[in-house]
Structures are given as structure tokens and as C-alpha cells.
Write a structure and sequence with these properties.
Blueprint lengths: L22 H14 L8 E2 L1 H8 L3 H13 L3 E4 L3 E4 L4 H25 L2 H13 L11 H21 L3 H22 L12 H10 L2 H25 L12
Antiparallel strand pairs: 1-3, 2-3
């Protein structure tokens, strides 16, 4: 049975959920989007009632959405005060990239042996769609959201091509967590530079190389991502939250 797709980057792609989103689903997506886009900054505290008023929704779906976001580590409950957007820690980057090296690296290695012609064609389409904003033109929120959809879809297709459903679920989970960092990374000029090991390199290593070559290139891609993200934090402008948002 074909794996269910989670990340939808084109209207003709079925995302696998197959149901109308509930009010809780809608509240979850709206709150999560604000955290990812940093309109709700790390460390910001709020009450359930305040957020419900802001979203113009009742408290029940907001409460249920916050419970889900708390389980995923996006918010923390504060006794007698409400909630806080989980602060970002430099150690989280280290742990996240170490885990991504394991799961994305293995996914790429397995995909090199099992990728189908259809999956290969979709990766090519994603490469064509990922013509990035030139570094001198800072991408806006809409462009970064588009880039996130393409990035997530690219890595998910590789995970599905691995043929390992558990690995696919792990990759999806870590991609969703990484969205909190993507805005910072994509705002740094080196993200678009010639030294960045990108999706095109990963794609070639999967369709033309061996399992070990694919794993090695995925690791190089993730290391490029980690390096640029760290620079985005240490050198970035104030609209990324600055170093004060990092503990």
C-alpha cells in the first residue's frame, strides 16, 4: 500500500488525511503558523482566552489545539498563568541536526536503491519549482512559506522512496519541528550561495549514485543547512528575534 502523503505542495496532490478539518485542526494550524512565522515569538506568554479572542474562535478548539502543540513541544503550559511559546535553545539545533543526519541520511541511502520513476520525476518537478529568491531580494513570508512546502515535500518523497514507513513518519515529524528554524535560515544570503549543498546535489546522488554516496550527500546538505542557520542566528537582523531569543 502506498504511503500517505503529509506535505501537499500542489493542488492535485492528495495529502492523505481525507477528511474535512475540524475546528481544532484549524486552530492548531493557525496557532502553529504564527509560531513558525514568529508572529508569536519564543518566550511570549499568553492565555487561552486571549488567543481565542485573537483568532475569533471559541475556547474549546483553542484549548485542544494548545494541548496538541504542547505535546509537540511548540508551547509550554504555565500553572496559573496560561501558556508560553517554547523558547529556542542552541542545544535544540545540535540535537535536531544529529537526528536528521540519522533519519534523512538513511532515507536517502534506501531511496538510492528503491526510488521509482514517478518519485524521481516529482523530485525533478520540485527542483524546478524551487527557483529561490535571489539573495539581494529578501524573501517575504509568503515566499518562505512556499519554500517550506517544497522543502518538506522533497524530503518526504525521499523518505517514502526508502520503502520504510516508520522512517517516513520520523522524517515527517522532524521536518515539522524544523519549520521553526527555516525562516531564520532562508533569511541569510549564504542560503542561496554556491557553497550551499542543496536539493539538486541530493537528487543526483540518489538517482545516479550508490546508497553510501546518497547518505554522504544528504549529510553534506544538512551540514550546509546547520552552518547557515547558525550564521542566521549569530549574524541575523533583529526581525529573526536576535540572539536574545536563544538560550
Amino acid at each position: 500500500m502506498a504511503a500517505e502523503r503529509v506535505f501537499k505542495w500542489r493542488d492535485d496532490i492528495v495529502d492523505g488525511r481525507g477528511r474535512t478539518p475540524s475546528l481544532t485542526d484549524k486552530a492548531y494550524e493557525r496557532i502553529r503558523e504564527r509560531i513558525v512565522e514568529r508572529s508569536l515569538e519564543p518566550g511570549h506568554d499568553f492565555t487561552e482566552a486571549e488567543l481565542a479572542r485573537h483568532l475569533e474562535m471559541s475556547k474549546t478548539p483553542v484549548r485542544e489545539a494548545l494541548a496538541r502543540l504542547q505535546m509537540e513541544g511548540f508551547v509550554q503550559a504555565i500553572p496559573r498563568r496560561g501558556y508560553m511559546v517554547t523558547p529556542l535553545h542552541m542545544s535544540a539545533i545540535r540535537d535536531l541536526f544529529a537526528f536528521r543526519a540519522l533519519v534523512d541520511g538513511e532515507a536517502a541511502a534506501l531511496a538510492a536503491a528503491h526510488i521509482s520513476a514517478r518519485q524521481s520525476c516529482e523530485l525533478e518537478e520540485l527542483l524546478e519549482a524551487s527557483a529561490l529568491t535571489p539573495p539581494q531580494m529578501k524573501p517575504d513570508a509568503c515566499e518562505i512559506a512556499r519554500m517550506i512546502r517544497i522543502d518538506n515535500a522533497f524530503h518526504e518523497i525521499i523518505a517514502i522512496a526508502s520503502g520504510n514507513e516508520r522512517l517516513h513518519r520520523c522524517v515527517v515529524g522532524v521536518l515539522r519541528e524544523f519549520e521553526r528554524f527555516y525562516h531564520i535560515e532562508a533569511s541569510h544570503p549564504e542560503f542561496y550561495g554556491p557553497d550551499f549543498i542543496g536539493h539538486a546535489d541530493v537528487y543526483r546522488s540518489i538517482v545516479e549514485g550508490t546508497a553510501e554516496a546518497a547518505r554522504k550527500t544528504m549529510h553534506a546538505h544538512l551540514e550546509s543547512s546547520r552552518r547557515v542557520l547558525i550564521k542566521g542566528i549569530t549574524e541575523g537582523p533583529s526581525d529573526t528575534g536576535g540572539q536574545s531569543a536563544w538560550l
